[in-house]
Amino acid sequence: MGKKFYTPQEVAKRLDVAYMTVYRWIQSGKLRAYQLEKQYRIDPKDLKNFIEKGETIKRPAISSSLSKFIASGMFDYAYTASHRFSTDLTLGINPLGCSNKVSAFYKRKNIQFTDMPDPISKNLREKIAKVYGFEKKEVLTGDGATELIHLSYSTFMNPCDDVVIPETTFPPLEYMAILTQGNPQFIPSTSSFDLDYDKIESLITKNCKIVVLCNPNNPTGRQLNQEKTEKLVKELPDVVFLIDEALIDFGGISFLPLTKKYANLLVIRSFTKGFGLAGLRAGFIVGHKDLIYALSRRQIPFTIDIFAQELAKVALDDLEFLDKTKKYIAKERKYIEKELTKLHYSFAHSDANYLLVDISNKFASSKEFVKKLNEKGANVVDGTNFRGLGNTYIRVAVKHHETNKAFINILKTLDKK
Ligand SMILES: Cc1ncc(COP(=O)(O)O)c(C=O)c1O
What we know:
By secondary structure, the protein is an alpha/beta fold.
C-alpha cells in the first residue's frame, strides 16, 4: 500500500491531538476512514478536506492544557494542607466547618466502610429530591459538582462540539471540556465582571451543544443576571444550559425553580461549599427527567462512597447551618470590603465567598503582591491562574473573622509601589 494512506496514529501525530480524538472523529463520521485489515486508514485527501473544513486544531492538545493547569502550582499550594500559610485565604472552604449534626453522626455511627455503597445512591437521591421539592427521577448524585460537569459534557457533547464557557471562571470547566474532546468558546466579561450577554449569541453556532455558567461565578463572586440568562435558555431550546451553583449556598438567587420550566436547563449543586463537606466529594444535578436519565446511563456506578452517601443525608437535615453560613459570609465579606476600600483597593461586587481584588493601585503585578504577602505568612490566589484576568488581580476567599482580620493587618504592612 506504500505511503498512500495514514493510520489514525499518524493523523493524531500530524494534528497534535490525542489518538482517541481521531478515533472518535472516525466513529462519528466526521473524518472519513477506510477499514483495511482491521485497521483504519485515512486518505490524505480526506484529511486535507477535514482540516480545510476547520474541524480540527481549534483547541489545545489535551496534554499541554492539563499540564499547564498543574504547572500553575494551584495543586501544590492550595490543595495541599501542609503547604498552607498561617493566614490562608486561598480556597473557598466553609469557615464554619460543617453542621454539628454531621460531625456528631460521624463520631457516633460506625459507618461500615467494609461494606459496598449503594451503586446509585438511591436514598440520597430521594432525600435531595424531597428537600428541594423534586422527584427522584429529576435528581442525580455525583462525586462532587466536578464529576457532574464532566458527565454532562460527555453525555451531551460529541468530539469537536463547542462548549460555551465564561472566559474568567472555575478553570476545570475549561479543561474538562478539553478532556471530553470539546472545543471551548469563551464569553468575555464586562468591566464589572458580569457576562457580556451581547457576545454570547454570536458564540452559539450549530456546533454549540452546551453553555456552562456559574451562579455565582468563581473567582468573581458575581451572580448571573436571571432575566438575561432565562431569555437565552428559552430562545435556545436545542442547547443544554448547565448552571453550576456550587457557590450558591454563600449567596445569590438560584436557578433551581427554572428547571421545572425549561427542559434544556440543568442545575448542579455541591456539598463541598455551604455544607462544608469538601473532602467527602458529593454533589447533585437537577433537571428534566429525560436529561437526568441520559446522564445516569453514562455514569460510572459507585462514584459516591459510603461516607458521602450517609453524611450528605445528615447534612440535609440541617439547612439552618446553610442560613448561618450565608449570614456569616455576608458579614465577613462586608468587613473585608470595608477594609479594602480604606486601603484603596478596588474589587468586583461579590454575591458569594470570593472577592476579586485589583492590586494595580499599589503593586506592579499580582505575582509581586502574592510574594510579599507570602513573606508575611499569608496567601491568596494569584489571578493569573484564571483565564482573561491579566496580572493585576488576586482572589481572596472569605474566611473566619480571625483569618480575615489577620489578612487585613498584613495588608496594612505591605509596602507601596
Ligand atoms: C464554581 C465551582 N464549581 C465547582 C466547584 C467544585 O465543586 P465540587 O467540590 O463539588 O466538585 C468549585 C470549587 O471551587 C467551584 O468554585
